[in-house]
């Protein structure tokens, strides 16, 4: 193993000094743990809906059934609030939406009129637009019930008792929507923690590739070639060094976040390490391929910024992929980050390693193809 | 003055040859603004619902009509799949936001008066789950109403229902208090928000080029040679630093013009205010970079430290996750970005001038402090043995 000294040298250069160890190992681990800590406390809460039912009769409560029925929202019953106060609650941001049922709701409904409950919201968003639509459906079916009774009783004013019976019957639904629990990955929807690990990993890899670049630029690489070594030994040594540096950093960072700071997305340490290791190989491929196109290490570090952060964004490292326009989602298939996230997401549902074979294979494919392209960076410069 | 000007122009010539740098400083912010702006635009995207209807009975027609109806399209986009497993797969893999399965015995059980359930699957996005769920439930509540009428009033009562036409929109009064804009970005749009955040971030990044240039020239020894020329050395250093600052000015112009005319970002029209804020940001950024450079000595360490700081400042001031600054308390305010962002956003949404000037004032104070630090520490940056 004549490549080993070269690999060891690369490790020493990255984290051999106290400063290197701090900057390249400790700092990223601490930053990641801070991010993990922040995000576990910032988990989005349910939408809060303030409800004030001023209705004198019984029908207002039926209207609200649709909101109360299940636990999609956090419902705050504030019956003592007036229309104006509940509007204020939304304006002040205490509630995400509010529903007000006016005092004459039952009365007017029975009289065949259309009493209007009020929905307050700050902005129009999908969830409250569909809340509105289901309130409308509820109001419509209540109005229809009244009309049916009217028709049944030959045009006389509907009997409140009969109406209650009808609505009671509706409250014991013949058809209901039964929520089927299904294990979903936690990473795709909240990717920021894993996404940041991927981002840091790419930056760290780009640094060790930068060292190889520097060797090339300073012609120290050319000197290495005068040693009684084959070109392959040198190339292997450099690759091996980059992989080892990345692995050491990865194991340290993961150990710190897993065992010291206690973050885990429900993926075992070993499986996580395996996926990230494959991702690291793919990113070494990306970085060397990019390095092959650059003239010097300084240029490389600048171009890396241009590559690493936007591709991470497109591939869903910071927010769910589904938020992106359709064509960018397709573009994400060309980024290794997407496949690493997908593999970890699947693992977090409790899937076995077999189930993530496809994304892992894709990562390896990235590694192989790009490393071949990047081979140029490992030969001495001819300039 | 002449020395200053000559150094400045030569800095510019040098920088104009660093294509990679120029691309990063101009194209990267524009790219990030585009990506984040399009990911978070407030346009309502309907939830994609995967549907499998196993029922072949009498009710199937009504159910299919519901899924094909135009009135649900603003909220959900149904995709009819051919098996339950496909629906699960689509929801788990994220190609669908929500899944619905209508059981095979739906029509039969309903006709027999027994209770029956549709099976639903929640997807990754909580808000889209709510949307899809409400739509499913409102359809089911109509079915239930008919079933109840059938039970209580007898089958003949339903004949009247078909002819009923109510204007559903009039049934519930809705008031949207915040106007059209999305709450998650305050009173401006996502793309405005991120345009501000990344302008501020990359101006400071541009400010770093001055410090890099000084450190590199010191390392290469070319800076020391300039002691030999019959001109003021401080004018030379000032030329290098202001060359980088001028680059920041160019960046501001490029980013603002591009976002305004290509992305259609409304900057609010107070261009002198924007110019002032940008200038203060550049000064603060350069000051910070030079201060760091005085401790770091090598370009690499300086870059790592500055990048880390800039990244953290952008993050805590809400440049990556919108409005995170409101949840972080004091830490979000202890940086340059927060005040520059707030001032620029204030100019955009036309909030009170007093507030905008307050933010500019604090930004100016930060810039002044950092500039003084930088001037005190400058000898450490430029002199070989200071």
Automatic annotation (TrEMBL), chain A:
UniProt keyword terms in alphabetical order: Cell membrane, Membrane, Transmembrane, Transmembrane helix, Transport
Membrane topology per record: Multi-pass membrane protein
One Gene Ontology cellular component annotation held by this UniProt entry: plasma membrane
Keyword Methyltransferase annotated: no
Transmembrane segments: 21-42, 192-213, 234-261, 267-291, 303-321, 356-378
GO MF assignments: ABC-type transporter activity
Subcellular location: Cell membrane
Every ABC transmembrane type-2 domain range: 156-381
Main location: membrane
Family: Belongs to the ABC-2 integral membrane protein family.
PANTHER family xref list: LINEARMYCIN RESISTANCE PERMEASE PROTEIN LNRN, MEMBRANE COMPONENT OF ABC TRANSPORTER YHHJ-RELATED
Name the record gives this protein: ABC-2 type transport system permease protein
Origin species: Paenibacillus algorifonticola
From TrEMBL, chain B:
One Pfam family linked to the record: ABC2_membrane_3
Positions of transmembrane segments: 193-215, 227-258, 270-293, 305-324, 355-376
Keyword Cytoplasm: no
Gene Ontology molecular function, alphabetical: ABC-type transporter activity
Compartments, as annotated in UniProt: Cell membrane
UniProtKB keywords: Cell membrane, Membrane, Transmembrane, Transmembrane helix
GO CC, alphabetical: plasma membrane
Hydrolase among keywords: no
Topology class, membrane: Multi-pass membrane protein
Identification of the protein by name: ABC-2 family transporter protein
